Amino acid sequence: MCGHGNGLSRRSFRAGPQDSAQGEAEETPSFPTRTHRDLKLADLRAKPLRKLGIPRADLIDTDKDIYPQTRKWAEAIYAQCPDIEGLLWVSRQDDAAQAILLFEDRLPSDALAPHAGSVDIVNDDDTYAKLVQLADDIGVKITGK
Length: 145
What we know:
Blueprint: E1 12-15, H1 22-27, E2 31-35, E3 41-43, H2 46-52, H3 56-59, H4 67-80, E4 86-90, E5 98-102, E6 112-114, H5 125-137
Parallel strand pairs: 3-4
Antiparallel strand pairs: 1-2, 2-6, 4-5
């Protein structure tokens, strides 16, 4: 688990709120981010989980009420793997997307850099339209704006 051969190579990804109410989203900008170097991430995708004998359903495909238990996994990896800078897994909501959690205190201050300007995900019309479309695609209703 502490090996990081399957870490995230230098690339761009979108940073922003993962799970927030619309009011919180209004206060949190979303911005494309680029790493300056490869990140050392614990790989929690299907093959590494299978190798460890951990069913995906026990760690990734869980409902919100199980999050305290999955958080314990993150805490254990953090405690046992001091060189790991975060976690990488396949999103439960979109199996074509990767989810990343970074341990802020393990990253140098210059590890991430904005790749483009920040975007207000609620007040930028194009971005909000994409958000509404995504919500519709996954059967989520957005209230307010």
